[in-house]
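sry for the spam today, last one i promise. struct tokens for design, 183 residues
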């Protein structure tokens, strides 16, 4: 059969459109089959967790809400209403941490603190930023965000900082403000 080229194109387009619209409902059903609900394995209200090492308290975490997603391939714990943490060093010196939201990733040991993050040492040093990460294994804080650091030497502002949990080692990047140095 020798149809004009115009009719051949119309017939081919009709077949493609029919196949496309005919498969649409099946595609949506396949999507539903592959969808798994993202629900926590457990949740808790008014949490007060004490972390210990050899009978010594190393930290206390208080939060109004905790969602545990340990049932996922990449397990994490979410604190959607914020956290208030107190860390203790070996001499029982305390570091206080507050944030509006936090996520703790089990496999990496990283805690992501977000929203009005404030860290205060017992010595009076205060760091404020909008996002801060804490590496639990190395006991190290870091951020690439803007920050404000207040201590006995004055107030400094910058963007990008990392420091030990006791504020003894501080590495800052772009910094401005009043800074006193012994060098």
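last one done:
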């Amino acid at each position: 059969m020798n149809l004009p080229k115009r009719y051949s194109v119309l017939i081919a387009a009709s077949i493609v459109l029919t196949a496309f619209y005919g498969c649409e409902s099946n595609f949506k059903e396949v999507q539903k089959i592959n969808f798994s609900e993202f629900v926590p394995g457990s949740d808790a209200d008014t949490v007060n967790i004490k972390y210990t090492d050899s009978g010594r308290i190393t930290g206390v975490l208080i939060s109004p809400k905790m969602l545990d997603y340990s049932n996922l391939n990449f397990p994490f714990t979410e604190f959607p209403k914020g956290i208030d943490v107190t860390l203790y060093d070996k001499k029982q010196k305390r570091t206080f941490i507050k944030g509006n939201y936090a996520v703790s990733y089990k496999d990496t040991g990283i805690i992501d603190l977000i929203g009005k993050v404030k860290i205060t040492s017992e010595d009076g040093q205060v760091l404020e930023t909008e996002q801060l990460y804490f590496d639990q294994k190395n006991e190290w804080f870091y951020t690439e965000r803007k920050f404000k650091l207040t201590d006995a030497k004055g107030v400094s502002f910058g963007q990008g900082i990392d420091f030990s949990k006791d504020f003894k080692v501080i590495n800052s990047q772009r910094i401005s403000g009043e800074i006193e140095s012994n060098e």
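DSSP finds one helix and eleven strands in the chain. ok im logging off now
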